[in-house]
Specification:
This protein is of the alpha+beta class. The protein has one helix and eleven strands, in the order E-E-E-E-E-E-E-E-E-E-E-H.
């Protein structure tokens, strides 16, 4: 998994020119620097760790600097999150053991390698003070969530788009039955034209016959079982 560590400096601010960062995943130290962000008090570091394996991350003053102040202090807190894309809702258990380390150097310490053979480390016998730091939960076991977030629906239908102009008429829940036969409304000018009047009368008789036939077929269908006849 790939983890993102975010170092948040409070007071005093973190000066990258005075620090050195080391990461040990495979048994050897890999030196580098933290990555600045838009916030001058926040710095990040990406660390990739194999499953069921361990990693060591160290941030300390760069004691190789000739102009390093006698006292360098870092104060703040560190955040951790997973950046590897995984399945939504997945969680991963990690053990975190933050520590505060202090290294004591001899007064006559020099970074120039001593001549061989080394008798008694030539003043390179360092002492360290290690103190465990509490976590936000008081536990070393953390369950980190997957970085995949819930996807929003492509179409949000909670607020329907208003239809421009007049609203659409609502459809009835039950469709009306057959329309009973009735007289055809007269057309303007039909009374004055005998031929048109006769045509309308024949049309009215035909429509009345069709309406009665449809009504009769609907009644027979409702009272009989539905089947498909094998004969044409």
């Amino acid at each position: 998994m790939t983890f993102l560590l975010t170092f948040n400096a409070t007071t005093p601010a973190l000066n990258l020119a005075q620090t050195v960062q080391a990461t040990d995943v495979t048994g050897g130290n890999s030196f580098g620097d933290l990555t600045p962000t838009a916030d001058p008090n926040r710095f990040t570091l990406s660390v990739r760790v194999p499953g069921r394996d361990t990693a060591l991350v160290i941030l300390q003053p760069d004691v190789t600097l000739a102009n390093l102040p006698d006292s360098v202090e870092f104060r703040g807190f560190v955040e951790i999150e997973i950046t590897t894309r995984t399945f939504q809702g997945q969680t991963f258990d990690v053990l975190l053991t933050p520590e505060h380390r202090g290294t004591f150097l001899p007064n006559n310490f020099s970074f120039v390698p001593p001549p061989l053979p080394v008798a008694n480390n030539n003043g390179r016998d360092f002492d360290q003070l290690i103190v465990a730091l509490p976590t936000a939960t008081g536990s070393a076991l953390f369950r980190l969530p997957s970085p995949v977030r819930d996807l929003k629906p492509l179409i949000d239908n909670t607020n329907p788009i208003p239809f421009p102009g007049r609203p659409l008429p609502s459809l009835p829940e039950v469709l009306p039955g057959p329309v009973p036969p009735g007289p055809v409304p007269p057309i303007a000018g039909a009374v004055a034209d005998p031929e048109l009047r006769a045509t309308l009368a024949r049309l009215q008789d035909g429509l009345s016959l069709m309406a009665r036939t449809i009504d009769s077929l609907s009644g027979e269908t409702a009272g009989a079982d539905s089947f498909v006849s094998p004969e044409p």
